[in-house]
Amino acid sequence: MDALLQLAKENNLYIVEDACQSIGAEYTFADGSKAKSGCIGNIGCTSFFPSKNLGCYGDGGAIFTNDDELAAKMRAIANHGMVVRYHHDMIGVNSRLDSIQAAVLDVKLRHLDEYIAARQAAAAYYNNAFASCDKLITPVTSDFTTHVFHQYTLKLVGVDRNGLQEYLKEKGIPAMIYYPVPLHLQKAYQDPRYKKGDFPVAEKLMDCVLSLPMHTELDEEQLAYITSSVLEFVNK
Question: pLDDT value at position 52?
């Protein structure tokens, strides 16, 4: 983010952060100061979809900014473009969070740090279990940011990914392949300038990644069962 902020400053650009899977993560700048994910750029966005780290019971989301003028405009746009009731100063949308969802989030937000700690503990268990297996590459972490593990995604080396997924399914373990098709191969984004092979890293990843169960209620018995099952298949 240090480099992106500098690039934006030099070119008079705005930064909109997609923080929909990283709420609660913390970034440490080069000067030692810290900021939460979604609160670094001009606008941050998060999702409250039930599967997210902070989820409601239906659907919803939020946007963040430290710019008061921008905040006032975004509030108006989200509320039919109104500042004064029934006076529409701009074209807006109806993007207000439902009161029931807000009530759920008001309670769950107080426990966000606990939820993050539980996910980090589960990830640490996975990391330790897979540390000596060179066929399993665990998620990247760094010393300048925390990881809140919305997902725990392995990169497989020389492993039958689909075979492993089916093996885990037979053992009652829901391992998922998220985002199996990269953007340039999606029908909605077909463009004659881009073809299969133009983005080899994305295409390689779509064939070798697998996400293991990750949520706040995983206990040691479940984690031991999941990791031993993965290693049974990989090492057979």
Answer: 95
Three-state DSSP string of 85-138: CCEECCCCCECCCCHHHHHHHHHHHHHHHHHHHHHHHHHHHHHHHHCCCCCEEC
Sort 147 into a burial class: Cβ within 10 Å, 0-12 / 13-18 / 19+: middle
| DSSP-derived 3-state class of residue 221 | helix
Q: Which residues contact 118 (CB under 8 A, 6 or more apart)?
A: 216, 217, 218
Q: Domain residue spans in the chain? A: 2-47+61-96, 112-235
Q: How far apart are CA 156 and CA 59, in angstroms?
A: 33
What pLDDT shows up at residue 218? 97
CATH 2.60.120.260 fits 2-47+61-96, yes or no: no
Question: Is residue 62 a contact partner of residue 18, using CB atoms and an 8 Å limit?
Answer: no
Does domain 112-235 fall into CATH 3.90.1150.10? yes
Strand, helix or coil at 158?
coil
* HEC per residue, 198-218: CCHHHHHHHHHEEEECCCCCC
DSSP 57: S
Residue showing tokens 């340039």: 184
Residues of the chain with pLDDT under 50: none
pTM of the model: 0.89
User: Given this model, what pLDDT does residue 96 score?
Assistant: 87
